[in-house]
């Protein structure tokens, strides 16, 4: 059982909350009151057996007296402090006040032990704040990069400007001729119709989004939502013989014909991968070799890109994979497939970070690339990536098309001190100011500005 040096503090706080005297709890736990006093003041270590007796005497779960039940609270509070420190680096007067009110990390366990309900409330608020920040980043990216939104908003502003100018002429000109007055009124009518039509189209476009805060719009997003709902794995394809159309029929996430066509192509590739890399042998090889795509490609004599796709489509709980991510791009660098790994930010509309190993692979066809990367964010996270690009000939006289694939895995614990490549999601929302690949200024604060 996980225990912290402040287990005794939790025992004392829980005993006081229950109204038990120290002598009563000691007697029920079959220890002396003096020894319990030493424990409650964190001057004696507590064995698992003794924790179980004390917890039984108080009628609580033994894990609530150790760190195990509160580990998530500790992590959440530390994340809140880290977010506060990151906001402080942005400069300004608010940063100074944040610095003066910075919480004491050394007493975080005491705070959780004494006020678990307040700690849980703060952690929930921090999680909600992080979620809303991601929503803001998503909509900022959408507003900046979505061509339909940009065009629609430009049309609205153009129509409003025309209406305002025409109305001003009618109001300010007293002796306007009837013919010109009729022309201006006709212009107002036409611009009003254009404005209402554009606004209706814009509202309809927004209404098509999912009711969630980061809703859907494009066929690719519909496909990703469907795959997410299915856990990115289709056991029906493992044995073969299942028609992809049967899996697609009736899927509420695939609202458009384009999304259903993308789903059909994806299922066909996944079925091919399942035939080349059968599930049981792959899981056995993973247990033996670990998540090493190169070794797996050699074991099954298949292309490396196929191994990367297969690993990202295995059922949850596959050995050593955690929650993998996968991105695929064509020769233009456009992401044609996205499965996000937790903490690895993927752009929805903007171009992705040019420092991704995915794009390095495009410049080095058929050469496998393995790289540790640090994804920028409020709390930078480390990942191990595998990338490769392969040519797709279109005939003797046709162009050679390139497709790059990158598998994203959680970084191994032993790589914590190893050098890693700093990357971001896209320039628009990346906080790294000093970046050789930056194309445009970011809309978020530079996380390194306050540490320069």
From TrEMBL:
Domain HTH cro/C1-type: 11-65
InterPro entries reported in the protein's UniProt record: Cro/C1-type_HTH, Lambda_DNA-bd_dom_sf, ScfR_C
Domain of life, per lineage: Bacteria
Protein name: DUF2083 domain-containing protein
